[in-house]
Amino acid sequence: MQIITNDEQKELKSHGDYAFPVYVSEEVLHNYERGSFLWHWHPEIELTLFTEGEMSYQVNNQVYHVKAGDGLFCNSNALHTGDMINGQNCHYISITFHPRFIYGYDGSSLYRSYVKPIIKSQALGAYHFREEVFWERNILRLMKEIYELYFSKEPLYEFKIQKNLAEIWITFYENYVLKERVDLKDSSTSRDVDRLRTILTYLEENYAEKITLEDIADEIGLCKAECCRFFKRLMNKSLFDYILYYRIERSLPLLAQKNLSVTEIAEMTGFASSSYYARVFRAQFGCSPTDYRKNEG
Hints:
Layout: E1 22-28, E2 36-40, E3 45-59, E4 62-67, E5 71-74, E6 80-83, E7 90-97, H1 100-103, H2 109-119, E8 126-129, H3 134-152, H4 157-178, H5 187-206, H6 213-220, H7 224-235, H8 239-255, H9 262-268, H10 274-285, H11 289-296
Helix pairs in contact: 3-4, 6-7, 9-10
């Protein structure tokens, strides 16, 4: 299983509908190929409640080490990905909702004053909730209630979920935005996020073709050396390693198609030869593409 996105990493899965723009699901990190979900974004806010295990969860340029009992706020349109830590599984509850569910309609005073400053801020990609902080513990409690309400389908559950989401927003705004007086318009963070998004989009659109460092550097307006340093700083891995990782990731669903040869798959995912593809695959998985296909079949 893997998250399905378009060429700009936007997740294509529906998160509720216009009538009730809320979607709650139980997730297991191990269900994703290689125990990680790919970079993606969506216009909905995502609240995640971690119930078992731990995970390395990256949002834009910030990495969070989350564990059971923690929660995470992921902002609208923020790029995010998650990976296992030391091969350990992680169970979590995902609550996604369109912010209009709490502000009503575009142009409302709720939207202008309290919602827009947050969802339009690239400086605020995410926030890590912990039980040790009183107001954060209250938000975690409200998230648990939303999960229970969503699956109970008891009378008025939609209203009660809306009430809880509004209370979460009020609590977060009062304690984070007002009391801590955070700068939601940090231009340096915004610039980094834009550059990272540009690189990831370029790789998504061109991973099957020959990619040079010069091509990527030109996309974001940096020299080649600075481009490498920038990517390493934000992603904690080299640009070259990430390209290989991403190409192998894209090859996994193709291996499930028995009508494609390993040579064809190598060509479709940007590898210069099937032998190089097999060598990189073995380095990442400890087996050949052919053996992986047999084991997964």
